[in-house]
Amino acid sequence: MTTRKPTLQQHLEAGPRKRVLALDGGGLRGIFSLGYLAGMEEMLRVRHGNDPAFRLSHYFDLIAGTSTGAIIAAALSLGLTVEEIIDHYEAMGRDVFRKAITRLGVLRARYDEQRLVRSLKAVLGADRTLGSPDIQTGLLVMTKRMDTGSPWPLANNPAGKYFIAGPGKDWISNADYPLWKVVRASTAAPHYFDPERITISRQPGRKAVIGNFVDGGVSPFNNPSLQAFMYATLRGYGLNWPSGESNLFIVSVGTGRSDPSQSPALIAAADAIKGLLSLMDDSAALVETMMQWMSASPKAREIDRDIGDLSGDQLCREPLFTYVRYNIELSRKGIDPLMPGLSATKIRELSAMDEPKNLDILKQLGELAAARDLTGSDFPPGFDLPAA
Description:
Strand 7, helix 9 and strand 8 form a beta-alpha-beta unit. The protein is globular, with a radius of gyration of 20 Å. About 2% of the residues have low confidence. By secondary structure, the chain is α/β, with parallel strands linked by helices.
């Protein structure tokens, strides 16, 4: 049996039974997400006729990513297999995150973004744009424009208000933004990389407007699942997909929750960076709470001791979507059931976002977590792709 592979238009058109994949930020901890995604790709391939040509870009109608999740989302949207992305990701991580004594301190970005630019161009193409027709499915990249203080979700949706500049408009079509530059903007984490500059508009005789973009994790959407839900359903964004438990399926994959007992000083030296990381964790917790509150969620976890897993609560009369979330806590409690025997020092180090020596362990953790957590019942059969 072969599976129908939807076109980009079919992925984006309004209709029931739409599928969304949302990928968190988290620096090099993105390799943990890829462990989950490898298991997901294999499970869904077998479920759809075991076609070797099956890709996650065939199943998901919209793939959303923030920061490192944006790198993975963009690569998936181009039809790469998870195994191919893992190979690129490991090489990229070891090349980009080289520590240099000349970049220590808090007044200069810790890493040279040109290494990241070269890697992104090699994987995503130097000339491919956000509007390129060879992007196989919906792609949503979460960025933050610092010079205006506004979150910027950028997508390849032709119905988007700013996707194509009409006659007489002085702003540049989102469709013409280089894909590598959009993804690089989403990964420009303060302290780690310098901002990415994107030209927004040009007028004859006037200075061009250039936006200063930083990591989408600086917005409330380091976990982009809530933004993806809003993008899919709010009329202003142009997709206008119907909500409802049987209409919209959202799969969210984390990069491992930082150990809450770890001192932030082990992650970053500057008080401002400590505060930023703490705010990102708080925003992620709020997003996860909102997603469980609004949905039918078979994988709902205990948010805290007061509200539990929200199974007895419902924000709306009917669930707005079906939702599954995959993640673990990078603590003794979260890791020991999967990989017992790691030292306290090693467990503490795994929360770092820029340590290449953690890649192998994080990848293995993701694979083990996927083997334990992924089940066919998580993916309702009503959302399966039809046979060709």
